[in-house]
Amino acid sequence: MANSASQLNLDTLNPSELKVVEDLFLQGITGKPVQVPRRLAESLLHKGIIEEAVFVTGYTASGAVTKTAFRLSAMGQFRYCMWFEHKTQTA
Known about the structure:
The protein is built from 3 helices and 2 strands. By secondary structure, the chain is α+β, with helices and mostly antiparallel strands. The chain has a two-stranded antiparallel ribbon. 46% of the residues lie in helices and 23% in strands. It has helices spanning 15-30, 38-46, 74-90; strands at 50-60, 63-72.
């Protein structure tokens, strides 16, 4: 996990990483799953912005059907909200 605030500054992300963060933010709102390329996921995991999670995608007679995917970490969610608010106030 990231320990330094500079690693969590979204201004340091490249455009592809930022797009993944934005998509995952919307995933949290809409519930529509987002495919994240493994290379970008590893970078964002290392920075503590996203995390792997198990999602329930349905149910069968034998139990829940699950899928492992990515979501914003609590810190990633917070950083994205702060970054977006600052971005919109300075625009």
